[in-house]
Write a structure and sequence with these properties.
By secondary structure, this protein is an alpha/beta fold. It has two domains: about 1-150, NAD(P)-binding Rossmann-like Domain (Rossmann fold, 3-Layer(aba) Sandwich); about 155-275, Orthogonal Bundle (N-(1-d-carboxylethyl)-l-norvaline Dehydrogenase, domain 2), CATH 1.10.1040.10. The chain contains twelve helices and eight strands. The strands form three sheets. A three-stranded parallel sheet has the order 3-4-5, with helices on both faces. Strands 6-7-8 form a three-stranded mixed sheet. Strand 3 (about 45-50), helix 3 (about 55-60) and strand 4 (about 75-80) form a beta-alpha-beta unit. The mean pLDDT is about 95.
Length: about 280
């Protein structure tokens, strides 16, 4: 995202919780900052993409956080996948403290989409704030949809994650079934392409699951468990039955408890293989 904004001619302040991740931008036209407050001091927009709600809260409201310096006419644009109810509270808190506005802008499309500027971005926030941010966001995503007030973008992201988390888990199960039937899982995945079972996720994860490839890492059990957990929490609050998403949440929880919390999503296959009974056909 930073590289795309630089290529578009924007002046960019950069801060990261892990300072070494800023190293690739040394020698470029970015200003590497020591704190979120420094990064936000002269910004028209504060763009964030962080791991979880706690990280966002500390970055914005913590010591040397964004609220210490953000301008009244600025907007926080948060790409993180975090709690929608918390964001509604954070928006009110930000407005009261600084006058600035909060836009939730969770994304779908992964690192490849970010690099190519083809992300799908789900937007929630004040109409005027979203309109002002749109020219910047068009350098990052090809499909931008504004759904309503703050929190609505994250509600859509929960729908997205319900599909993604369940889909990835069932792909792993299908590959495991192929192995149990004595089939070459790579050939099975290839045979499924073009049929109704085909999908972007099958194309990405099917070959990785079939071969056990986890390099380069793609996704993380922790992140998927966090996201599907927020999906089921939202569903419970809305009294919306989601038995499939609930089952997927149980799968990711079991994989995490088996010692794979920090691993790539290929850990799903490790879990299914270790849990499998010996082949009774022998």
């Amino acid at each position: 995202m930073t590289r795309r904004l630089l290529d578009a001619g924007y002046a960019v302040n950069v801060w990261n919780r892990s300072p070494e991740k800023c190293a690739p931008f040394r020698g470029t036209q970015t200003h590497i900052c020591a704190t979120p407050a420094e990064a936000a001091a002269d910004a028209d927009f504060v763009l964030m993409c962080l791991l979880d709600t706690d990280a966002v809260e500390r970055t914005v409201f913590g010591l040397h956080g964004v609220t210490e310096t953000i301008r009244r006419d600025c907007a926080v644009v948060d790409f993180s996948t975090i709690s929608a109810p918390w964001v509604k509270t954070a928006d009110a808190k930000l407005r009261a403290a600084t006058g600035a506005r909060w836009i939730d802008a969770p994304v779908s499309g992964g690192v490849g989409g970010a690099s190519a500027g083809t992300l799908t971005i789900f937007l929630g926030g004040d109409d005027a704030a979203v309109a002002a941010a749109t020219p910047v966001l068009r350098h990052l995503g090809q499909r931008l949809t504004h759904f309503g007030p703050t929190g609505s973008g994250l509600a859509v992201k929960m729908c997205n994650q319900a599909i993604v988390a369940s889909h990835i888990a069932i792909i792993a199960e299908a590959v495991s079934l192929a192995e149990h039937e004595g089939l070459d899982p790579s050939r099975v995945v290839e045979a499924l392409r073009g049929g109704w079972a085909d999908s972007t996720l099958l194309g990405i994860f099917g070959p990785r699951f079939a071969t056990g490839t986890d390099a380069p890492p793609l996704g993380q059990i922790y992140t998927m468990l966090k996201d599907i957990g927020m999906v089921t929490e939202m569903a419970e609050a809305a009294e919306c039955p989601m038995p499939v998403a609930t089952a997927a949440a149980t799968v990711y929880r079991n994989v995490a408890e088996a010692g794979h919390l920090e691993r790539d999503l290929t850990a799903l296959m490790s879990f299914f293989r270790s849990a499998a009974k010996p082949d009774r056909r022998d």
